[in-house]
Each structure stands twice: as C-alpha cells, then as structure tokens.
C-alpha cells in the first residue's frame, strides 16, 4: 500500500463521486412523513496522549485543530486529572465564539456559541448525548427543564479533552445549530503504563467567607497478556462549595395603572379606589385605618403619564406610562453545593486491528439553597387579592430624563420578609460500549452503544412569608445609584415583632403565607450506531453508517400553599425568626439594610410542618389536580453516506469530506390535564424527515497556510417543554396556554470560511467568517382559535355546575368559543452573520526568560436579525395587523473577546485571563406591556492561575477566580433601562497540591 500522505491529482472519476454526493445534498428537501429516531456515526476516536503543562496542552490542541477537516477548537488537559479551569464552562469561554452564561452564585452553567444559546448546542460525553437539568433562583427561571447542558454538574478533572465542532459533518449526529461539544473522559490506553494521581484543594470566597474542599484522584494501569492488551482506569472528584450571592431585584416593572392603580388624594376628581364597605374604602380613606395621604402634585405626575404600549391601546389608562418595581427587594442567597463524580474505563486490544472500550460515568450534584428577602409587596397586589396598591398613597415622586421612576415615597405599603429553602439534586449515569475492527487493511468497522440518564429531583422547595401591612414612610431612591436603590422601609425591619404570620383578615389584609413544591425531571438518551469505512484508494475513503436514538423526557411538578395560620399560644414572631447580618458589603449604594429579621425555616417547620403536605396543616396538601405532569419521547433513525478525500488540485493539496445525512424523527408527547376534577391524559404526535448535506474542505495554500470552507444544512429540535400538550385554562377571560406538539425543528443553512496561518512552531493566527441562513424559528405568540380545535377534552371547561350543552348556567367558555391561545409556533427565521479572530502566540522568538511567555487572544462579532411577533393583531387599526419587532437573537452578545497572558518554564507556570461578552437580550417584549426588551449588561471576568513543581511528581497551585467581582445585571426597557436584577457573588481563591507517579 502507498503512503497515506501521498496525494494524487484529482481525477474525473473522483470528481464525479464527490459531485454526485453534493448533488444529492443540494436537491435534498425536508419532508413530512412517518418518522422515528436519530443517532450519529462517529469516526474512530484517535488516541489522546495526556500532556504535562499548559503550553503542552495548547500545542496538543493546536495539532488536533490543524488535522481536522472542519472548523474545530480543542482544549486538552494540562496534566493528569488537571483541566485548565475548575469548571468546564469556564474553559469553554476561552474558545472563539463561545460565551458563558452564569448561574446563581456566579458559577458558569451554560454556553452560547456564535450567538446561539444552550438549546442550540448538543453536548456529547464519550460519543453519546448528555442532558443535565438543575434548579435556579426564581428570577432565573427556578428550574432548567430544556435540552441545554448544565456544565456545573461535573468536575472538570474527570475529563481529558473538550472539542467544539462548529461545522456540520454527515457522520456527526445532527441536532445542533450552534456547535457540537464533545467531552472525553480518560482511558487506560491514554497512558504509557501504571499511573496514579491525587490532588487536594481548599477554596475561599470573599462574600461567603467559607473554606471548602476539593479532592481528585485517578488510577490507571495496562497489561500485556497472551490475549492482548488490557487496561483499566478509575477516577473520582469531590468538591464542596458555599456560594453567597447578594443584591437587589425588582421581580418585574409594572405601570401605575396595573392592579387597580394607587390611592387617590382627598378630593380627587376621580376617586380611586371606589367606596367599598367590606374594605373600609370611603372618600377619606382607602381602607380601614388607611387615610388618603397622596400628595396631589406627586399623584398627578405619576397618573398623568401614559403609554399606548406600541400603539396597541387606543385610550391608555392614567399611569400606564409610569413604571415602578413590582416587588422591590434585597436578596441574600446562600447555596451549599456538593459535587461528586466517578469515571471508569476498561479497554481490550487483542490485536492492532481490534479494540473494545467500556466507559462508565456517574455524578451527583447536591444543592441546598437558602434565599432571604426583605421587600415591599403591595406594588404588585390588587385590591381583590389582598388590598395592596389601591391602598398605597403616593407622597412624593421623581422621574429622570429617560422616564424612569427613580424616586418615590409612599404610605400604607405592605412590607414582607421571606425565606425560601430549595433542596434539589441532579444525578447523572452513563455507560458507553464502543469498539473498532479492521476487517482488512482497507475496510474498517466501528460501533457504539450507550445510555445516559439524568434525574433532577427537588423534594423540597419551601417558601414562608411574614408581612407587615400598611407601613408609612416607605421610599425607594435610585438617583445616586441606578443599580442598588436606597430603601427606607418605614419600619424597623430588624424587629421581628413588626411582622406577623396570621390568617387573612375579613377585609383582605394579609399576614403572610407559605408555598411548597415538588419537582422531578428525567432525561434518558439511548444511542446505538454502527459505521463502516472503506479505503477505496490512498486518497479516497467512503464512509457509511446507521444509528438509532431514543430520547425520553418526563417532568412532574406539584404545588401546595396556604395563607397565614394562627400561631400556637406562646409562640412569638421572635421564636420563628433569625437575623440577617452583614448584608451589602461590596454591593455598593447607600441605604442598604445591613440586617433584617428573617424567616427561620427550621424553627418555623418545628411549629408548623408544612412539608407534611397533609390535612393536619391546612394549605400544605399538594394540589394534585393542578399538577404539571408531562413527557416527550423521540425516536430518531439516521443514516449517512460520506466521502473523505485527499487530493491535489492545481498543485494545491485539498482534503476534507462531503456527504449527506438522513434523519427521520417521530415524536410522541403527553400531558395530564384537570378535566372537571379528574386527571385526563392528552396526547400529541409529530413526524418529519430531514436530508442534511455537508461539505468540509481544507486547502493548504502554503505549507503553513490553510483555507477552510464548510457548508451544510442543520437543525435544532424544539424544547421538550414546548412539545408537551400541557395546558392552563382561564374560562372567565377565555384564555388558554398550551404546548404545541406540531412544532417543526429550527432549520438552517450554514456557511463557514476560515484562513489559518501556522506561522511558527505551536503558533497560529486565524480569521474566519460564518453565515447561518435560519429558515424557521420558534417563538411564543398569542392568537385566536376555536376551543374545540385545540385537542383538549371539553370537560376541562366544566366547573361550578355550569353546562356546555345548552343547560343553565352556561359555562363562561364553550367548545365553540373563540379563545385567546398562548403557545409556541414556527415563525420565519432570519440571517446570522459574524466573524472570528484567533491568535496563539508563544513568545519563543524572544531571548532568555521572555521566551517562556505567550499570548492567547480571540475576538468574535455576531449580528442577527429575527422578527419577533409581539402581538398577533393591533386593535387600533382596521386591518388588525400583526405587531412585530426586529432584533438580535436572545442570548446573542454582538461582541465577545478573550485574552490570556501566560508564562511557563520547567518548574513554574502562571497565567491571567480576561473574558468579555457585550450586553445581550434576555427576552423581547415589544412594547406591548410598556417594555421593549430585557437586557443583560456586558461583563468582563478576570481569573489567574499559577503552579510550582516542587518535584516532577509534586505540584503546588494557587488560583483566583472572578478577581474583579463582576456583578450580574438585568435591565428592563432600552429607553428607561430600569434595573430588574443586580447581584454579585465575590472573588474565589483556591490553593492546592497534586501528586502523581
């Protein structure tokens, strides 16, 4: 056989083969037909050689990148059980085009690739897809239930390499518009022989003031026997972390006209609220013991501001243009994390032609989060709920030039202290059996069979609230600090006796409540695949493969809750409270309470065990009839045909691949709905086919210069939560919120062009451009439909003895009623275009010690245009035209860049890194509620790491994370830029040691 590196001129017959494959791809169209399951065919995994040192890991990764056919970025372990960052997501943000989304406590959770959020990126572990779901704070969505991968579940030490594949390939599993991320755990054949490593670290955070441990270990060995080579590896990682996050949040921004408006002044032309003997409302008072004290000037300033909400309201209500925080509050979150991970691997190589691998992985991520809030609750309460805003008087008000309500003083404000305990765990288990066999020197077979399962179990999410109704003199003031207001609560919030926990009064006055929740989410993914590769010549290899994948997602959520209860005799508020102290250090702003009386959940549960969910504690029983119980199953069959080529064209070496992948998807979903007091199962089903061509070409223009081009069709399947036919019905206002099993995937055509110059040993500079033509998108809209067309049982309309068949009284909503339907639908997509710059520059050209330095730098710019439907019709126009807003993808930072300066010699290594992403859209609201966008401010995070090798076996290390204590800020509305959230979590320092042999 000839040398594999030899290239022949490109022959007409070969051009014909490639042309046929390309033509098949060019003509392939999506079709709708019976469908079932997708999987992928992996090419044989190359052996990973564990390197030692940061510089060596960069060099190894660069070699992998250079040898790839598509556009790929790689991160390798620096040493045995030593990844460059403590968190995989933190490492990923160093990759060009990758931005990090941080969760509670400041830790990296998910990634955005080239502007596309975590739902568009598939993550595979040892060749099969993994999904991990975790919990979150209320303002961050409470729970991740989607397809996105949460990197905080795993310790980075469990992995040997990380690969980000930004272009598609026929042999690679479909399902990603952003990137396919491959994580690889260690195997015994990665090492030359017996290997052992153990490490220990201690962590300290500047806000939580805690010291937490982190331990890792790895053992690997391999043996030669008469039956071939055997190898075994086991590794483990354990860490405990206490994160404390402090800050301010508004929960929402509501207009003064919401929830019935404010209490009008004495003698106002229009009295608000109207007289009500039950509530104690008269011309002189807005409730029992609540006199009308609004200042006419301030009141008129507020209520005189109007907003037509993007032209959707013909006669705006008074106050519709003045926006105040719904629940202005300070929060301290204390989260205790415990992360445990284990990997195992067995390998058998009976001959050089055959190899079998068994990879095992398990992990558990335990969380216990305590949230304590001190807040004003009445700005988000209506009169009918619990009095609230209509009893609150406006004493003074100020608006800045942008129209933001930056100062207000009020009377009769309800103050609340709230405690939340969220206990949840994520458990991950996976096995993968894979192998290869060289049938001949030209025919090779590979197989892979595996299963991963992730369980998010939340047995307890308990909230208890104590209230202090009708406090006078409350104020918020953003004039000196737009992020952290100065708040005067009008009472001594450190005194627990100023709060109460008791039943609601006859006039609606509230004295606290409690809420509970149970949640369980399971993701199960099974993959079976076989591939074959035939080396037709030294320059052409034909590949084909079949795969089947079964994905299953289930989600159960059950809630409970009740109003305040009468405390037993002798139990005082002091007995069920504790003091928050030392709050706000490093947060900024003035007028921040350093302490307040907080709910002590342990003490409260000893008085009222609301977690019994039983009749003995009224209100604690689970509401089984209104539970969320839903699931989705996907069966995806896939096949591919691909050609690898390696030729000279006009004396220019060309290599790459061209092929097509066919994926047939069958989706079945279900949900339980409350049908007049009984749970009834509703089902949904969908099928579709996709033909996905892909081309990757690399041309060596010069021995050190490469030009890459890639083109293909890709897809991203809808989120599971959107596919389940669960529903929420309000018969009185004739509104239905429902899932949509008929959603089609988001489909796109992609094009990439990148030039790379390997200008020196272990050095590279590259520049590239990419374009994605996204044909379809998915977004939530409100439209109108006849109820009977929604596929829900008619019995859900019944209740209170009403009739849907002509009897009396008639139900408020009937089967033939046209209702407002809130659901996710397929809408037109749009273009996404960007470019990337990447530099890896060791300073080896410098003399002496300076040659040990080096620089890593990258920059990404992305722009996209999606038309968001903000309302399906405009009642102010005769045509009722659709209202839309054109904007970037949510989660897309137009600009992102990273910079790392490093130094390394034989004993000492150090580096400092800065990662920046510009502001991005969290959601698009379109002015319909008075806000156009929710944005997340841009951020820069600075980290450093250093280590010293005392001996070839013993290494000491010191690391610093988030050195600049970067805050997380959400803003509401691009003009006003009101603060929705502002929190920080402090700096973390880590010292450690590692021993290996």
From TrEMBL:
Keywords annotated in UniProt: Cell outer membrane, Membrane, Receptor, Signal, TonB box, Transmembrane, Transmembrane beta strand, Transport
An annotated GO cellular component: cell outer membrane
Gene3D superfamilies: TonB-dependent receptor, beta-barrel domain (2.40.170.20), TonB-dependent receptor, plug domain (2.170.130.10)
UniProt keyword annotation of Transmembrane present: yes
Boundaries of every TonB-dependent receptor plug domain copy: 65-177
Compartments it resides in: Cell outer membrane
One Pfam family cited in the UniProt record for this chain: TonB_dep_Rec_b-barrel
UniProt-listed PANTHER family: PLUG DOMAIN-CONTAINING PROTEIN, TONB-DEPENDENT RECEPTOR-LIKE BETA-BARREL DOMAIN-CONTAINING PROTEIN
NCBIfam families for this protein: TonB-Xanth-Caul
The family this protein is said to belong to: Belongs to the TonB-dependent receptor family.
Protein name (record): Vitamin B12 transporter BtuB
Species this chain originates from: Duganella phyllosphaerae
UniProt lineage: Bacteria, Pseudomonadati, Pseudomonadota, Betaproteobacteria, Burkholderiales
């Amino acid at each position: 056989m000839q040398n594999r590196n030899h290239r022949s001129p490109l022959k007409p017959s070969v051009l014909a083969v490639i042309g046929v494959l390309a033509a098949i791809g060019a003509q392939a169209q999506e079709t709708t037909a019976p469908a079932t399951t997708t999987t992928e065919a992996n090419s044989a995994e190359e052996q990973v050689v564990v390197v030692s040192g940061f510089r060596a890991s960069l060099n190894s990764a660069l070699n992998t990148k250079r040898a790839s056919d598509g556009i790929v970025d790689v991160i390798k372990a620096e040493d045995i059980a030593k990844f460059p960052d403590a968190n995989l997501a933190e490492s990923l943000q160093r990759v060009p085009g990758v931005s990090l989304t941080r969760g509670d406590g400041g830790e990296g959770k998910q990634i955005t690739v080239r502007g596309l959020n975590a739902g568009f990126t598939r993550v595979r572990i040892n060749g099969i897809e993994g999904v991990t779901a975790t919990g979150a704070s209320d303002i961050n969505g409470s729970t991740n239930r989607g397809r996105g991968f949460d990197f905080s579940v795993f310790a980075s030490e469990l992995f040997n390499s990380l690969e980000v594949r930004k272009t598609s390939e026929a042999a690679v599993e479909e399902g990603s518009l952003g990137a396919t991320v491959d994580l690889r755990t260690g195997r015994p054949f990665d090492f030359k022989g017996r290997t052992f490593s153990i490490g220990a670290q201690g962590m300290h955070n500047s806000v939580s003031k805690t010291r937490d441990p982190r331990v890792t270990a790895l053992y690997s060995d391999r043996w030669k026997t008469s039956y071939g080579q055997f190898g075994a590896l086991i590794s483990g990682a354990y860490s405990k972390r206490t994160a404390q996050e402090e800050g301010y949040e508004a929960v929402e921004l509501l207009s003064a006209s919401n929830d019935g408006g404010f209490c009008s002044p004495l003698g106002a032309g229009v009295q608000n609220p109207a007289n009500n003997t039950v509530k104690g409302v008269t011309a002189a008072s807005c409730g029992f013991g609540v006199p009308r004290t609004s200042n006419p000037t301030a009141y008129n300033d507020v209520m005189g501001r109007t907003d037509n909400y993007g032209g959707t309201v013909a006669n705006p209500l008074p106050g519709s243009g003045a926006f105040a925080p719904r629940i202005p509050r300070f929060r301290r979150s204390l989260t205790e994390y415990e992360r445990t991970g284990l990997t195992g691997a067995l390998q058998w190589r009976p001959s050089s032609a055959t190899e079998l691998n068994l990879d095992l992985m398990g992990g558990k991520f335990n969380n216990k989060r305590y949230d304590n809030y001190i807040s004003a609750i009445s700005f988000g309460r209506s009169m009918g709920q619990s009095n609230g805003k209509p009893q609150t008087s406006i004493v003074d008000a100020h608006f800045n030039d942008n129209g933001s309500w930056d100062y207000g003083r009020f009377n009769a404000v309800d103050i609340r202290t709230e405690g939340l305990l969220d206990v949840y765990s994520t458990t991950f288990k996976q096995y993968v059996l894979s192998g290869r066999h060289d049938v001949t020197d030209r025919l090779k077979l590979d197989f892979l069979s595996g299963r991963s399962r992730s369980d998010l179990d939340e047995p307890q999410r308990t909230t208890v609230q104590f209230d202090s109704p009708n406090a006078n003199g409350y104020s918020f003031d953003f004039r000196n600090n737009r992020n952290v207001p100065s708040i005067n609560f009008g009472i001594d919030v450190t005194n627990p006796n100023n709060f109460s926990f008791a039943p609601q009064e006859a006039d609606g006055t509230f004295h606290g409540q409690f809420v509970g929740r149970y949640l369980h989410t399971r993701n199960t993914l099974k993959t079976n695949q076989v591939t074959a590769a035939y080396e037709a010549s030294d320059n052409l290899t034909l590949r084909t493969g079949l795969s089947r994948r079964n994905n299953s997602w289930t989600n159960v959520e059950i809630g409970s809750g009740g109003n305040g209860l009468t405390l037993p005799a002798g139990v005082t508020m002091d007995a069920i409270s504790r003091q928050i102290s030392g709050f706000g250090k490093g947060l900024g702003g003035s007028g921040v309470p350093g302490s307040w009386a907080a709910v002590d959940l342990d003490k409260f549960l000893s008085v009222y065990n609301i977690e019994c969910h039983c009749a003995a504690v009224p209100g604690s029983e689970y509401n089984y009839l209104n539970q969320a119980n839903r699931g989705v199953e996907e069966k995806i069959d896939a096949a591919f045909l691909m050609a690898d080529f390696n030729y000279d064209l006009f004396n220019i070496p060309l290599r790459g691949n061209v092929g097509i992948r066919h994926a047939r998807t069958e989706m079945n979903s279900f949900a339980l709905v409350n049908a007049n007091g009984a749970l009834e199962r509703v089902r949904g089903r969908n099928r579709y086919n996709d033909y996905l061509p892909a081309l990757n070409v690399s041309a060596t223009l010069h021995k050190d210069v490469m030009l890459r081009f890639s083109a293909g069709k890709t897809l991203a399947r809808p989120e599971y939560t959107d596919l389940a036919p669960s529903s929420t019905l309000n018969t009185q206002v004739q509104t239905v919120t429902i899932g949509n099993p008929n959603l089609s995937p988001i489909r796109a055509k992609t094009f990439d062009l990148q030039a790379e110059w390997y200008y020196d040993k272990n050095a590279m500079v590259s520049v590239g451009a990419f374009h994605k033509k996204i044909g379809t998108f998915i977004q939530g809209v409100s439209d109108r439909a006849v109820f009977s067309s929604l596929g829900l049982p008619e019995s859900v309309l019944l209740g209170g003895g009403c009739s849907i068949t002509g009897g009396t009284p008639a139900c408020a909503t009937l089967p033939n009623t046209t209702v407002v339907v809130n659901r996710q639908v397929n809408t037109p997509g749009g273009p996404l275009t960007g470019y990337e710059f990447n530099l890896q520059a060791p300073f080896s050209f410098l003399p002496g010690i300076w040659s040990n330095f080096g620089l890593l730098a990258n920059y990404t710019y992305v722009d996209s245009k999606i038309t968001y439907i903000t309302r399906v019709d405009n009642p102010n126009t005769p045509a009722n035209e659709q209202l839309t807003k054109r904007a970037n993808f949510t989660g897309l930072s137009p600009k992102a860049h990273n910079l790392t300066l490093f130094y390394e010699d034989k004993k000492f290594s150090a580096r400092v890194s800065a990662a920046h992403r510009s502001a991005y859209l969290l959601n698009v609201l379109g002015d319909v509620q008075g806000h156009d966008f929710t944005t997340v401010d841009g951020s820069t995070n600075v980290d450093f790491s250093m280590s010293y090798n005392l001996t070839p076996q013993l290494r000491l290390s010191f690391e610093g994370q988030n050195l600049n204590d970067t805050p997380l800020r959400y803003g509401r509305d691009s003009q006003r830029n009101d603060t929705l959230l502002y929190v920080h979590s402090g700096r973390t320092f880590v010292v450690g040691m590692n021993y290996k042999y």
